[in-house]
Structures are given as C-alpha cells and as structure tokens.
Amino acid sequence: MRETPDSKLQADAVETPDIRWLKILTEYLQKCDVRLDSCPRILDIGCGNNVKWNYLAITYYLAGHGLGMPHYVGIDQSEEAFEEAKKILGELVEFKAEDAQNLTDFLRQQFQIVLIRHPDIATAPDRPRIWHKIFLETAKVLDPNGCVILTSFWLKDHIPAQALLEKTGLSIVFSGSNKYPGKQFDISSEGEPLRFDKYILIAKKSTLH
Ligand SMILES: C[S@@+](CC[C@H](N)C(=O)[O-])C[C@H]1O[C@@H](n2cnc3c(N)ncnc32)[C@H](O)[C@@H]1O
User: Beta strand 142-152 with 199-204: parallel, antiparallel or unpaired?
Assistant: First the structure.
C-alpha cells in the first residue's frame, strides 16, 4: 500500500515509544545473540523521564519470552530528571539520584542490560571525559552475558560514544543506523536531521580476556 501523508500520521500516532523500543530490543538482542536470564537486572543510565517507555518495552520483551519481571534500576543525576516517571512507575523501578561516574560506589550487582539513551557527550568540552568515566564504571557492572545498548540522535554523539566505549575494553558488536528510529524533532546547524534513537551501539564484554 502506498504511504500517504495521512497514513503516515496515523502510523506515528499509534506507535508509542514503548512499542518502538520493543521492536528495537527484539531486533538487536537477537542480532547480537544476547540471551537474558529470568527476571534480569536492567540498568538505565541518565534515564530521565523517558524511562517510563523503556521500562514498559523491557517488560513486554520479557513477557514475550517467558522471562518474568525485570529488576529495573534508573539513575540520573538529580531527582527532578525522573520526577514525572517516578510518579507513574512508583516502586516498579528503583530510582537513584546519583552521579553515574561513581556507579560502583552505590551498585553492588551486575546488570544484563545497561541502557544509555542519548548521552549528552557533545554538549560541552568536559562531557567526553565525564562519559568516559561513566562507561568505565558501566563496564564494571555489566554482566558477562549482557550488553550495553546506547542510542544517539546525531553522529556527534554516536561516533565519540563508540570510541569511548571501545576505550573501556568493551567490544562493539553492532554500530550503525537504528532500524527503528523515532521521529525527527530538529535539524543540526550542519543540516543533519535529528531523530530519537537514530543511531545504535551494542557493546559486550570481550571474550578474548
Ligand atoms: C540528553 S538526556 C537523555 C535522557 C533520556 N535518557 C532520554 O533519552 O530521554 C541525558 C541525561 O543524562 C543525564 N546525565 C548526564 N550526566 C550524568 C551523570 N554524570 N550521572 C547521571 N546522569 C547523568 C542527564 O541528567 C540527562 O537526564
């Protein structure tokens, strides 16, 4: 069927971000051979309020694979960043207002998925150093059978994110355009269309050590 502007609008209206993220999880966890245990621990770094969609997508994915409910931890540097999501999700998600540069000071367990959506690497000169520290900590809390899923809305975050993740010793098992990006919300000064989750990286612990 030919896509008309009206049918495109309808498609955008029915596909909420949780459904789009279920497609992303289904596509890339299979492509990258990530097999989750029952009731896996999931860590969402820099979770903001969109954690509400991420949490739903993970629960749909686990339900579809008979894997129970997640133990889901959402971290952001201030309470205000996830205030609205916390009101909706309540006790379903363990929220922590902490600096993710010090993850191992307050997290003792490992996680099968570490989700990092839209890390703000390119916004200021000190940000790459900060995110490098966060990724070093991320590698320490990543389960040996798990993966990091990182998305970016432009190349200016995607490319440094890959370089910084590689510097931690993690292996990049997929890097490229996301098959299921969100809507365009802006355009960069260089003319790049900016879309939610436009690029995706999947990183795993290296098996060579
Ligand atoms: C561009 S926003 C993305 C928010 C959310 N992941 C999303 O995709 O809608 C980047 C998030 O990272 C958080 N963040 C930045 N540095 C952080 C740090 N050192 N520790 C914890 N969170 C941090 C910010 O507060 C912000 O919520």
Answer: antiparallel
Domain count along the chain: 1
Contact, 54 vs 115, CB < 8 A? yes
Please check whether residue 107 lies inside any domain of the structure. yes
According to the model, what pLDDT value does residue 191 have?
A: 92
Tell whether ligand 1 has an atom less than 6 A from the beta carbon of residue 100. Answer: yes
Mean pLDDT of the region 187-203: 96
Ligand 1: residue of 18, 72, 76, 126 to mutate (most ligand atoms within 8 A of CB) is 76
pLDDT score for 1 = 43
Q: 155-167 and 127-141 are packed helices; what angle lies between their axes, rounded to 10 degrees?
A: 50
Q: How confident is the model at residue 14 (pLDDT cuts 50, 70, 90)?
A: confident
- Predicted pLDDT of residue 4: 52
Amino acid letter, residue 68: G
Nearest CA to ligand 1 atom 14: 46
Cα-only R_g, the chain: 17
150: enclosing H helix or E strand: strand 142-152
pLDDT in tens, 158-182: 999 999 999 999 999 999 999 999 9
Residue 77 CB less than 6 A away from ligand 1: yes
What separation in Å is there between the alpha carbon of 115 and the centre of ligand 1?
11
The enclosing domain of 22 has a CATH number of 3.40.50.150
pLDDT of residue 206: 83
